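Here is one record:
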Amino acid sequence: MYYFLGVFLILLGHVLAQNKQINRVNVTVYYESLCPYARNFTINQLYPILQGNLSHYVNLELIPYGKANRTSDINSDVSFNCQHGPIECYGNLIQGCSRDLIDYGSNTDDLGFNKNHLDFVECFMKNVTSHSTRTQAEEAVVRCSKPKVISASRLKTCANNTFGIQHLIHYGKITDSFQKPLEHVPTIVFNGVYNEEESDGAQEDFLAELCSKIIEPKPKECDSAKILQRKSSKSSVNSFHTISQFLIWYTLVLMFYLST
């Protein structure tokens, strides 16, 4: 009997662990470093919401490329053309380098994203605009770099050589594989499925859109979210699926035990 009880507890742990994994929502943001709409979303929606408990419910991926395009000359040298000019291209290069070079650090434990990187992105975008000069953008890099996380000189070096270019080419290919050309900046995608209504809604109320994707039981932060009933019903279906899995496992173990 103790053997079967042990098996049951193992299976129960598996189901609960799977439930915890399902609770984490995949969020992908396609953006540009100087886009005013992307700046507004990052500074006023994405960043503040992911500072607390909800950060544990998200796998976040930031793709800094937007509506940029790239060309190669006869020497295979790559150049970028960005929607808000060459300073935005520089900002995209900085953001691409920051994503790959910034150390995760201890404050990212148990999170589905690099919080140090998100801190840098938010700080940089808060200190630049679509009218910023190269000097102002470089000053933002210095202001937003943390000695124990990443040095400003290392980011600038990356952005000014082939490493930065290769980073941005990589994010350009990711963007192109999603949508070429990208129609809206920012574009926010939940769980790998693009829905224009959800993307637009996230720019206005990221909390509501995120909470609508988190399955039951939802965290207390979602109590105040304006979640549409149809979206809540989708989450309930996912929750029902998880509960059904548990009942199936329980029934199988019980049947096996009774048959012996």
User: Anything to note?
Assistant: The beta strands are 25-31, 58-64, 69-72, 78-81, 187-190.
